[in-house]
Amino acid sequence: MGIWSAFLTSLGIIKRKVNILLVGLDNAGKSTIINGLKLNAAAPTEIVPTVGFSVETFSTQHRLTFTVFDMSGQGKYRDLWEYYFPDVEAIVFVIDASDKARACVARDELETMLENKVLRMRKIPILFFANKMDIDGGMTPSECSGALGLEEIKDRNWTICATNGLTGQGVSNGFDWLAEELKS
Ligand SMILES: Nc1nc2c(ncn2[C@@H]2O[C@H](COP(=O)(O)OP(=O)(O)OP(=O)(O)O)[C@@H](O)[C@H]2O)c(=O)[nH]1
Ligand SMILES: [Mg+2]
């Protein structure tokens, strides 16, 4: 960012742009959550499994413009996630709270991610969404946290919020937290 842009951003005249990486297993609800944040989301869009990745941009009331790299969670595409680690300021990791059977797979993917050389050097925050809170019998955020071993993450800031991707409930709480983290 040039000096002039930095000055205008500091005055709140232009919004600061931040890159966010959106990851999690396939079917977790990543694209659904992001679609709900887009301005034109009033028109229902059919969400299909993401192939590779897609890029979405949206603004919030936090004077930030988020560019979100919405990654596919399918096994064959998960290797793509790491290519974005050097260029993002935060990670959003979506957990399907109703999918207890695959919580261990999500934990493995999270551990692999946290062991990555670039991420070990970059202490960027991670926002976890315990999504599909509307489904009965699903895990609570604290159960998700236990299943994925989140309490073991000591080297960076993180939080977990319960969300409903279909209604957007809980999503703004998460982005409020992220905006606070990104202030500095
Ligand atoms: N009941 C319920 N269904 C949800 C919720 N969020 C997403 N879904 C559904 O979950 C399915 C998968 O959603 P996607 O947004 O495509 O999931 P994704 O994480 O982007 O999946 P990939 O692109 O394959 O990695 C869709 O049928 C959504 O309608 C939720 O909070 N509750
Ligand atoms: Mg998707």
UniProtKB/TrEMBL annotation:
The positions annotated for binding Mg(2+) are: S31, T50
Question: Does Nucleotide-binding appear among the keywords?
Answer: yes
Record-level Gene Ontology MF annotations? GTP binding; GTPase activity; metal ion binding
Q: Which UniProt keywords apply?
A: GTP-binding, Magnesium, Metal-binding, Nucleotide-binding
UniProt superkingdom? Eukaryota
Question: Which amino acid positions bind GTP, per UniProt?
Answer: G24, L25, D26, N27, A28, G29, K30, S31, G73, N131, K132, M133, D134
Recorded hits in PROSITE patterns, A to Z, give: ARF (PS51417)
Per its UniProt record, what NCBIfam families does this chain match?
Answer: small_GTP
Give the family this protein belongs to, as stated in its UniProt record: Belongs to the small GTPase superfamily. Arf family.
The entry's protein name is ADP-ribosylation factor-like protein 6
- Organism of origin is Chytriomyces confervae
